Amino acid sequence: MSKSCFLRIVTFLLCLALGWQFWKGILALEPTQIIIGPAAHYIESAAEETGATNIVAAILFDYRALDTLGEASVIYTSVCGIAMLFAKSKFKISSTGLSFIVKRGVSFIIPFLLLYAAGIVLMGHISPGGGFQGGAVFATATILFCIVYGSGFEAVMIKPKTKELIESSGALMFVLIGFVGLWTGAGFLANIAAGYPKGEVGRFLSGGSIPLLNIAVGMKVSAGLSTIFYSMIKLLEFEVTKHPGVKNK
Amino acid sequence: MTIITLSHGTAIILFCIGLYTIISKRNLFKTVIGLSLMESSVLLLIVAAGFVQGGRPPILPIEGIAVNPLPHAFTLTAIVIGASDLALALAFVIKLHQRYKTVDLDKIRGLRG
C-alpha A128: how far from its chain's center? Predict the structure, then answer.
């Protein structure tokens, strides 16, 4: 028996033992009957305190909005890192995309996809959804563009500079909405206490700053994810064009 | 066996597969895949931990009792962080491949184990 095979078996047994211990712990858990702690308060009073029907959105963008800001800055940092790592690779020539039938079909789908994404972002405070999910759907639309029509077409239609601008303005918008609360003396990222109109609970125009924050996060996430994809596909095609089928490197 | 025990069990199995992948595989892409698997398992565990028996989704108006909305909010942020982490890790792997022309960890270190 070789050394690597022995190590592999030891690792397998270790993972199995760890899993068995976890399983014993899970079996000792008792099913939850009631909610205690801050979550109970959120469910009780989210409607009158924030005006949002979706309690998860109320937690994300009102009670714990500072966490969301930190989380958005994590995406920003990672996008900056990826763009910096691949900064030197220039975009030479793009793929031509898929066949004519696929291009026609996707051109019918794209408007509905964008509408769906906008719906998810804008209705985030009254139904399941929000900035993160809608932004991911927006990014999916641009990725579909890139695959079906070729990445050069995508780079012409939505310039990387424009994406950068959208992402930065999303981050800036988030912080400025927070500063309104600081200005009125209610604290950073305060919602109703900062003077945002609460509106009627359950209607489209409600929830104070939550829809605005949803839009900001949607801009950030969509531009960030599509920048990540674009940086990687750019690198891939750059390598292909640098050594087109040559294996002597 | 309730459905919630089943999801806990799934999370444990996924976690162990991810851990085994990270420890035993030398290919960097496979290591990143193992990291992603472990992250998904933890998210599944967190969401399952917020379940209340007979609970409804936490969207008003709630008929009856609602599930705990806090794990949902945490998971939502953790998913996006995980995705950007994964992208950054893959970018580093691509950079290493450009530098060393391999993604094998032992060859990069100059060791044959």
Answer: 15
